[in-house]
């Protein structure tokens, strides 16, 4: 997956670009990042945002940090999601829009990637994306859908299989 510094201006997907969008959690092998053990509160909140996919990719991505051709699947509350397949959006009170790969949950949980404080505040202050969240997506004309479940993995072709 592409690497971008946290809080740098987002440009990865033209469809997903809106004024004020910054990158969070675009990690790649060879780029160090700060680590921290995530709290349950953070994981629970991040999972809620992970369920809502924007900018679904045509092919999926493997985890660069795990190495190898291993699908990124994470399970919580009986739901198993296929990650590396889309992006997520989180809105900060100051108007900042955070854009992250939906593998973010995996990065935090499995690789102890330390989320930026501003991002944590945004997800913890609104632990479950509510009406206001979807209103913002609509206002920005950002199409969204439910994140792909792992059992629906078959339609996805993976980058490395195409190369
Ligand atoms: Zn990984």
Description:
There is one protein chain. With 163 residues, the chain is α/β, with parallel strands linked by helices. Helix content is 25%, strand content 20%. Strand 4 and strand 5 form a beta hairpin. The longest helix is centred in the first third of the chain and has 11 residues. It is globular and about 40 Å long. The model has no long low-confidence stretch (mean pLDDT 91). Zinc ion binds next to helix 2.
Q: Write down the overall geometry.
A: globular
Q: Per DSSP, what share of the residues sits in E-state strands of 2 or more residues?
A: 15-25%
Give the strand tally. Answer: 9
Helix vs. strand class: alpha/beta
pLDDT < 50 stretches? none
- Return the average pLDDT rounded to an integer: 91
Total number of helical segments? 5
Bound molecules: zinc ion
Q: How is the main sheet built? A: 3 strands, mixed
Q: How much is the radius of gyration in Å?
A: 15 Å
Quick summary of this structure?
With 163 residues, the protein is α/β, with parallel strands linked by helices. Helix content is 25%, strand content 20%.
Ordered list of secondary-structure elements with their pairings:
Blueprint: E1 21-23, H1 40-50, E2 52-54, E3 59-60, E4 72-76, E5 79-83, E6 87-91, E7 97-101, H2 104-111, H3 117-125, H4 131-139, E8 144-146, E9 157-158, H5 159-162
Parallel strand pairs: 1-7, 3-9
Antiparallel strand pairs: 2-8, 4-5, 6-7
The structure holds zinc ion (ZN).
Zinc ion is lined by residues 63, 65-66, 106, 110-111.
